[in-house]
Amino acid sequence: MDERVHAHAETLVDWSARIESGDDVVLRVSEGAHDLAVAVAEQLGERGANLVTVYDSAEVSRAYLTAHDGEFEADPEYERSLYEQADSVLSLGGGRNTTALADVPGERRQAAGKAHEGIREARLATDWVSTVHPTRSLAQQAGMAYEEYRDFVYDAVLRDWESLAEEMGRLKDILDDGEEVRIVGEGTDVTMSIADRIAVNSAASVAYDSHNLPSGEVFTAPADTEGEVTFDVPMTINDRRVRDVHLVFEDGEVVDYDAQQGEDVITELLDTDAGAKRLGELGIGMNRGIDRPTDTILFDEKMGGTVHMALGRAYGANFPEGHEDEQNESAVHADLITDMGEGSRMEVDGEVVQRDGSFRWEEGFGG
Amino acid sequence: MDERVHAHAETLVDWSARIESGDDVVLRVSEGAHDLAVAVAEQLGERGANLVTVYDSAEVSRAYLTAHDGEFEADPEYERSLYEQADSVLSLGGGRNTTALADVPGERRQAAGKAHEGIREARLATDWVSTVHPTRSLAQQAGMAYEEYRDFVYDAVLRDWESLAEEMGRLKDILDDGEEVRIVGEGTDVTMSIADRIAVNSAASVAYDSHNLPSGEVFTAPADTEGEVTFDVPMTINDRRVRDVHLVFEDGEVVDYDAQQGEDVITELLDTDAGAKRLGELGIGMNRGIDRPTDTILFDEKMGGTVHMALGRAYGANFPEGHEDEQNESAVHADLITDMGEGSRMEVDGEVVQRDGSFRWEEGFGG
């Protein structure tokens, strides 16, 4: 077994999930994640945690959902109690076919999801962590060779998380103390208010209320956005490609937009509801292990030297007591990413925090 | 997918487990049993049962057990409640290596088993059924080619169970009404009392209190065994080969024995405790789909035209109210099998029930 599988498991169990002796752990294993499951089980055994292993197979789900009449029982108690009593739920993604559920009718999947809403909530109330084991299927989705994709995933996962968390802590402090962010780049000059907001240091650990491995971003909830942004990192939204989306904001709302590709997707998004025209998130990618977009939001939005903004729903964690009612509500949360390359800068209250993609505490940062 | 996988799943869900709408089902999937799991999930979806899929991986277990210090928590509640609330537990055997746990110290496995005794009992209190998906690993253990082994398994599993259950019911009635069984063959002439015993019709269905698919045997609990038996079907007991075991009984106990191979294993067995010298079971194999021994007791003891006797512990199901205290107790239950071929016969109270391997209601039965 690739030694990095063991290192991945150790990072997941120690840094991310903080598993201790006696913890009740549910390990959810995708079809292609067997090797990582073995390595994680070893870590759990070593720590004296308890282990229940769930087979999270897309093909089993497809067969079940396709054959079912769609009248799902709400939150079967035997399953709910498993998650309600668990301390941690570790989900190992990595299937054999990312489109394994493609022929299950959407309403069937939605009905199943809705019927299991309580179980999902119970799972999210634990110290849950999701990660992915690099499979050939995911390599294909990322447009990479298998070996290449493994290198890519492990570069992103096997960081010095303690030091990265510290660095991200610096940015969090700047954002927490700041009132206004301005981002300037090619086709971009936008300002937004971040007063009375708490930035989240998403350091891939439940200790930071961060539940994905890899992670590596600091995010907050902006308001009163003014100006224009061009999102030059290509993405897939609602199964369609979008590229070079350009948004113009006035009084916090999108008033004009265009895109090189997928403009209709943006139209649909903005038409969803009132909240979809406002930003719910400003995120700053700080994971230098992620060096290119792979059309997987879990990785792309964490890319070091990028910034993402999400149209729609904001995260509650960004709102301090007394400001909860300022949280942007929407049925959508659509991330769009822009590369902070040569000529770009990010200012907080007029002070330059990042220039040409380098933070002011980094070596490459010029005066 | 081999159409027989679907037929296997249907037999398991319908005939064996009697799954109905709303049943809470735990599906336990071995590493190599994915295809059968998909087919079973389809059947469960069709019936509107609920589904939790557990990954029953020997390699995950090995990693966990090997790394653990051996001080296992007794019956973690989150796992126990899953099984306590389940209606059915369907276990799909079929791994990728039957010796995957070979280097886990025996005491570690025993400690884990002991700590999970309550969970095991909860599982056995459900309508549980165990079956196997034919894998290359199991084919290898059986000494067969993969294709050959698949034919073998499906011949054993895909029976007309309703008609077989009816046929086995005939034998059960004869045994229930009988007082004494006599078995005669080459190197065998033995009599035993079956008075006040209930024969179990093991028809591979929870409706018959029979929990293995395939099954196909009728078994009872004999007493006062007199005479000699030669067990000519080779077997593996405690990881060692035994062949042509010959036992001599007086007053219900083994008083002399020898074997062509593995005599030391028999010595060990008989020395375990007082109950190990007496028979706990007389079973009559009636599954004509199983046409050869494969050194897998689940299949071998069901072979049509064979009889097996177990040294040691008897099953409670054979003892009617008021006779429970006659149940033979022992730490062991070791099955030994003899082929009822040419020249053999089985009598109940002096009447021939089987001759030359054919029952008296079968075509081949000569006067």
Automatic annotation (TrEMBL), chains A, B:
GO-annotated molecular function: aminopeptidase activity; metal ion binding; metallopeptidase activity
Keyword Protease: yes
Keywords: Aminopeptidase, Hydrolase, Metal-binding, Metalloprotease, Protease
Required co-factors: Zn(2+); Co(2+); Mg(2+)
Top-level taxon: Archaea
Pfam families xrefs: Peptidase_M29
Gene Ontology BP term (one): proteolysis
InterPro entries assigned: M29_Exopeptidase (IPR052170), M29_N-terminal (IPR035097), Peptidase_M29 (IPR000787)
Coiled-coil ranges from the UniProt annotation: none
Family the UniProt entry places it in: Belongs to the peptidase M29 family.
Protein name: Aminopeptidase
